[in-house]
């Protein structure tokens, strides 16, 4: 098994005493329940054997600190105060000595474990120090080794067919810069090519925020989609009113997203019909909306919106449709990317004949941006796609270290395997407690698994009391977003906790 | 003199051999011209004595590397390829052995020198390593010491009257999140207060990107302003068509910015009139624009737009006007903040009776966000102002180290003093070459100095050949944006270079 071999290779590094291991003290950590790792060797040999719950969460120490924090920082969305120096591997610690198995992982963004020794080494390198303290304006003054950092990092894992990158800071601006590239591409086509100069009218009207310089075009997104919360990205986000209320938005169109019924094998025809109708809706909007869409943006799995899936056939159909109408396809892999679905990029599951035009990334990459391949997506003049920092080389170096760790431990294949195990076991729980685990989804999608709960918020709260940190999505989904170093013995602890929650 | 005392204090730290000093080799650096430091002790004792220009820029090594980089990264806006490991203090190095005095400083964003030893130490700390590798979703899982990091860092330098912060990633999203806070505040007032629930119509229409949920309101900005390049911030940016062409924009209003005539003392009445007319234009737009402005955003000195100044009286008038009409005042200190104008925040020059409602920051802070004081600017419910990362604690730790360095070396006062010296000397050059240094501006504004050049682009190019890296702004301004550790002996090198440029 790949993960076993990988663990053996890991040992010499992870078991040595690194500076932060010396600081950590897990002597007090007692396993709530230790599942025997059944022959599996741990990626983090000195990880806690299981969760420790010492107090209600938040405990007294946390409460005091939260009160202090609230004076200067809005804590109303606070889920749990953490002590990251004490967090390790799959386990998040808090100031009260509680240590939880973390399958939420900072909203799906910690890739290879808290305080990962390999990342720790990268963080303390001279190259990282220089990147941190000598932050360049990348578009103007890139460092002499920036090409190398890109090629051995971000671009090494570029989706097939896409060999270029524009670097950004987080998911929202990654999407917005991709949208900007799409608008420039479309207008360039309308003008007749890259060599055609802007008209006087284009120039003058752009400075007045008026058409044609600021064109009456749109980005098409889907109902219940999430693509970020800045003004352009928020205009394509349709997951919850709380994200959108009181913020001006562009009058851009939203297409129906197919609402699949579960279990899939019992609803084949209905689901096919739903997907065909959704595609027809996309085509209708592309051809008739008063602000013509120049791109369609879609998540491989709608994540914030409730873990909504569609079939590979649907996505292939969308690729065909966008090609047919000369509209770009932007795949937002901010949450699905970097291994969690058992492929490095979730859209690899689709078997596309030609790649998406742009793929955006963030979260587990710990840096952000969009990939593209078509040279026409480079704007025809410099400074059109530009800003001071254009990303952060320090975070790009970290992504490189993450990629090395993923490759060294074969974590994408590992996640596919452990995801299969976890899905099958939850399926068993779902047959045992049919009202509690509804619409189980994510089969064959690594650990990117979710189900609906009739009392979701209570479910998530209860989870902490049995030692697990879990997140939700949409109105009633429980979403599992463990890290890529989540193993079978962690799955067993999680499964045990899930059963405890619904039994209580 | 404060800077002399400070330099003496610095010595024991900066002159020891740190790891990156050991890597640097300045043996080959020969001074083009060394100005005697006239008794002034250097902040960076082992900084080069002056620039070295060995090749045309870019030289052969750089050219080769740029060609390689261009295959994967758009290099058409590349100004100079840098070697940051070899850059030190005020000097930027390149792969060809050229070492330039840098008074552009990564578009005004390097605060306390390349490879600053104190920042280097902070970068290699265990706290930094943990912040880098255990990046939290700050709104959900802040670390137990986040309040302390804020209070000893970002909030320690909060503008007077503003004791809260929302953290962001860069200038653009700092401004956009401030705009979002403004829209939510305005709608809350219209609804009758924080306790009033959203109406069904608000909720439904927001999901359709329609009013009233997505309100028909605006942010008022000024002609030639620059506030960023994402969709909302770009709608308030009015500096150059190249930033705006082909990008859809909100139909938000722009007010006239007073175009002052120089020298100021010879155009007092004209300039007063221009400022009064600009204020009248603001009032007209606030009261009559079809999308009512809920906030006015303004830079203390319009930077990208050409280094355009207005008087303290103008800004006081703007504060009075916005108060009168119950419109928020957002001061965009992304480029002016953190010391360069001889005050920590440029708006301290204005003598305001009540503070701005929000102040945004980025660049020299090396992290970003907006400050506010009024508790009504915290949205009435959690998750309204939220995203996964909400900034970056690693960058917040760096800002803390920057603040400590600024305080230790008294760099704000130092910059006020060296700025006065520099301004006076350029004034002398301007009398000697009146057609070459036009509209000199920034008197009493630290080193935030600019002048217009009849052949600006040529001027900037020529600067490199005489050992200085300088930036431009607007159509014809040469803008000086040295770091806070720029001293009199650097000013002398710069002045000598300026004269060489115009003489050649």
TrEMBL record, chains A, B:
Name used for this protein in its record: 4-aminobutyrate aminotransferase
Name of the top EC class for this enzyme: transferase
CDD domains associated with the record: OAT_like (cd00610)
GO MF annotation, one: 4-aminobutyrate:2-oxoglutarate transaminase activity
Superkingdom assignment: Eukaryota
GO biological process per UniProt: gamma-aminobutyric acid catabolic process
Keywords: Aminotransferase, Pyridoxal phosphate, Transferase
Organism, scientific name: Mollisia scopiformis (Conifer needle endophyte fungus)
InterPro entries: 4NH2But_aminotransferase_euk (IPR004631), Aminotrans_3 (IPR005814), Aminotrans_3_PPA_site (IPR049704), PyrdxlP-dep_Trfase (IPR015424), PyrdxlP-dep_Trfase_major (IPR015421), PyrdxlP-dep_Trfase_small (IPR015422)
Family per record: Belongs to the class-III pyridoxal-phosphate-dependent aminotransferase family.
UniProt cross-references to Pfam families, sorted A to Z: Aminotran_3
Record EC number: 2.6.1.19
Catalytic activity entry: 4-aminobutanoate + 2-oxoglutarate = succinate semialdehyde + L-glutamate
SUPFAM superfamilies for the chain: PLP-dependent transferases
Required cofactor(s): pyridoxal 5'-phosphate
PANTHER family the record matches: 4-AMINOBUTYRATE AMINOTRANSFERASE, MITOCHONDRIAL, AMINOTRANSFERASE
Cellular component GO terms, alphabetical: cytosol; mitochondrion
Record keyword Transferase present: yes
């Amino acid at each position: 098994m790949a993960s076993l071999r990988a663990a053996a290779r890991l040992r010499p590094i992870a078991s040595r005493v690194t500076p932060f291991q010396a600081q950590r003290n897990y002597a007090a950590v007692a396993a709530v329940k230790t599942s025997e790792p059944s022959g599996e060797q741990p990626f983090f040999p000195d990880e806690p054997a299981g969760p420790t719950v010492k107090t209600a969460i938040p405990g007294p120490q946390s409460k005091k600190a939260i009160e202090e924090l609230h004076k200067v920082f809005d804590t109303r969305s606070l889920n749990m105060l953490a002590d990251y120096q004490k967090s390790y591997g799959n386990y998040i610690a808090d100031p009260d000595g509680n240590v939880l198995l973390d399958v939420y992982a900072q909203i799906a963004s910690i890739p290879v474990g808290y305080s990962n020794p390999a990342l720790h080494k990268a963080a303390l390198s001279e190259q990282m120090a220089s990147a941190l303290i000598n932050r360049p304006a990348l578009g103007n003054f890139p460092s002499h080794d920036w090409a190398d950092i890109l090629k051995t990092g971000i671009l090494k894992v570029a989706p097939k067919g896409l060999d270029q990158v524009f670097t950004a800071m987080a998911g929202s601006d990654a999407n917005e810069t991709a949208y900007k590239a799409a608008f420039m591409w479309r207008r360039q086509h309308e003008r007749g090519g890259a060599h055609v100069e802007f008209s006087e009218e284009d120039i003058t009207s752009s400075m007045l925020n008026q058409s044609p310089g600021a064109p009456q075009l749109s980005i098409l997104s889907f109902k219940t989609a999430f693509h970020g919360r800045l003004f352009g990205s928020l205009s394509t986000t349709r997951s919850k009113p709380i994200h959108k209320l009181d913020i001006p938005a562009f009058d851009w169109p939203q297409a129906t997203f197919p609402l699949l019924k579960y279990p899939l094998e019992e609803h084949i025809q209905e689901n096919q019909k739903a997907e065909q109708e959704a595609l027809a809706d996309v085509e209708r909007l592309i051809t008739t909306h008063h602000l013509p869409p120049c791109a369609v943006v879609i998540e491989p799995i709608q994540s914030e919106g409730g873990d909504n899936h569609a079939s590979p056939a649907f996505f292939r159909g969308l690729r065909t449709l966008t090609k047919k109408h000369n509209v770009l396809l932007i795949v937002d892999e901010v949450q699905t990317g970097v291994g969690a679905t058992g492929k490095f990029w979730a859209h690899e599951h689709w078997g596309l004949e030609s790649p998406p035009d742009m793929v955006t990334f963030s979260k587990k990459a710990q840096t952000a941006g969009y990939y593209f391949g078509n040279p026409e997506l480079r704007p025809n003049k410099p400074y059109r796609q530009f800003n001071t920092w254009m990303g952060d080389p320090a975070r790009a170096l970290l992504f490189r270290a993450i990629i090395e760790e993923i490759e060294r431990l074969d974590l994408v294949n590992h996640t596919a395997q452990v995801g299969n195990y976890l899905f099958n076991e939850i399926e068993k729980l779902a047959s045992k407690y049919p009202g509690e685990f509804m619409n189980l989804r994510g089969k064959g999608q690594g650990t990117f698994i979710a189900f609906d709960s009739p009392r979701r918020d209570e479910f998530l709260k209860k989870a902490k009391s049995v030692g697990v940190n879990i997140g939700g999505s949409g109105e009633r989904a429980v979403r599992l977003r463990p890290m890529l170093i989540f193993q079978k013995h962690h799955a067993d602890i999680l499964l045990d906790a899930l059963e405890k929650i619904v039994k209580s």
